[in-house]
Amino acid sequence: LFSSVKFVQAGHTSVVTRFGAIRGQTLSPGIHMIVPMVDRLVSFEVREIKEVVEADSASKDLQSVNSVIAVNYSLDASRVNDLFNEVGKRDKERIIAPAVQESIKAATAMFTAEELITKRPEVKVKMEELLGARLAERYIKLDDVAVVNFTFSEEFDVAIEAKVTAKQNALKAEQDLERVKLEAQQAIE
Q1: How far apart are the C-alpha atoms of 86 and 103, rounded to whole Å?
Q2: How far apart are CA 64 and CA 66, in angstroms?
Q3: Residue 107: count of CB within 10 angstroms of its CB
Q4: How far is it, in rounded angstroms, from Cα 25 to Cα 23?
C-alpha cells in the first residue's frame, strides 16, 4: 500500500512508465497513486535552470573568441513525455550543450571582434534567436541568454591597446597643434 503512494516535488513533473513504456500521462506536483512494482516515475525539473557555457569560436574577421554565456531555460511541462521518449533523461548533454555551442559559434561569426564588444546587445539578441529556435524544436523554452564575457587572443588585445594608444597620441598631437596655433595667434595680436 505504501509503495503505491508517490510524491512529485514542487517544480517537477514526472513521466509514468509501465515496464519501460510511457503511459502517456505526466504527474504534476503532489501526491499520486501508482501501481506498485509495475509503474515507475521519471522526474524532470520544469523550473528555470541556469547553465553557464564556455565556447571557443571565431569572429567575422577570424579572431579567436572565447565566450562565456549564461543560459536560462525550462522544460515545457506539457511536452515532457515527448522529451523523455525522444531523448531520455540526458537532455543537458544531448540537447542543451550542443545547441548552445552551435548558437554561440554561429552568432559570433556574424560580428567582427570589435562589434562583439561594441554591439553586445545585438549579439545577445542574435544568440537568443538562434538558440531559442533550436531548443523549441526539442520542447525546451529559452528564458534568457546573458553574455558573461568575451576574451580574445593576447595578440589581438595588444593590437587593440596599440590602436587606442595611437588614437590618444593623435588626439594629443591635434590638441598641441591647436594650442600652438592659438599661442601664435595671440602673439601676433
Answers
A1: 22
A2: 7
A3: 25
A4: 6
What does the alpha-carbon distance between residue 95 and residue 49 come to, in Å, rounded to a whole number? 14
At what angle are helices 97-108 and 120-136 packed, to 10 degrees? 140
Residues 6+ apart with CB under 8 A from 57: 64, 65, 67, 104, 105, 108, 109
Other C-beta atoms lying within 10 Å of the C-beta of residue 30: 10
Asked if the model's pLDDT at residue 155 lies above 80, the reply is no
73, 143 Cβ separation under 8 angstroms: yes
Query: What pLDDT digit, counting tens, does each position of 84-108 carry?
Result: 888 888 777 888 889 999 999 999 9
Question: Would you mind telling me the total number of residues written for the chain in this entry?
Answer: 189
pLDDT of residue 157: 67
Could you tell me the CA-to-CA distances from 151 to 40, 59, 98 in Å, in that order? 47, 11, 21
Which contacts of 32-35 are long-range, i.e. CB under 8 A and separated by 24 or more positions?
32/5, 32/6, 32/7, 32/8, 33/4, 33/5, 33/6, 34/4, 34/6, 35/4
Residue 105 host element (H or E)? helix 97-108
What H or E segment, with its residue span, contains residue 43?
Answer: strand 39-45
Cα angle 20-46-85, degrees, rounded to a multiple of 5: 25
Q: Once rounded to an integer, what is the mean pLDDT over residues 156-169?
A: 78
